[in-house]
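Why Kinase-like protein? Reviewers of the renewal asked for a concrete example.
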Amino acid sequence: MSQKITKGLEKVHIEGKTHRNLHGGNLLIEDEENSIDARIGDVGLYGPCYDHEDENSGQIYGVLPYTAPEVLRGEDYTSASDIYSLGIIMNTLATGKRPWYNRAHDYNLAKDICNGLRPAIPDDTPKFYADLMQQCWSNEPENRPTASFIYERLSWYNLFCDYNYYDEKNRYKMHPHLKIHPEAYYTSRLLYFPEL
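Here is what the prediction returned.
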């Protein structure tokens, strides 16, 4: 599933655009008996809605756990900020849990993300996948891989490693009984943290 999401993001970046609001709610998942497919949704938003960027300067609209630290600090969205979001999605797929589901999505979480807080990686996560995720999360945007690089690595893994569809399907199931913090938000909203 990560491979298909990455391919969609690669297409956005090849067009010279950024998504700016990549998170689990903007993924279209098709879970059939014999296949799992995923596509990036809300792709229209990376274009026309931001045509008047000067009017929106300084405003961040998104889902806090998926927003790159440099964006939270007021820097512009880039393809590297999309890669950070992809890394958080990869973790969601590895854990079956939404990031920071058990705490408020507020200034304190934003500050912790800017200071390097990242979600835990399960012990049973394949090493190459964990390493790729951590590269996506780098505090330095220039150290994050490109969508093309990630896609190549995931393709290589699927081609040459012992890949089992049913293992993937079980791994990507969301935990149904997690108690979500009442101030954890997974829909896009205005994020305003001028103190960062």
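The CA atoms of residues 97 and 174 lie 6 Å apart. This is the kind of structural detail the renewal will allow us to pursue systematically.
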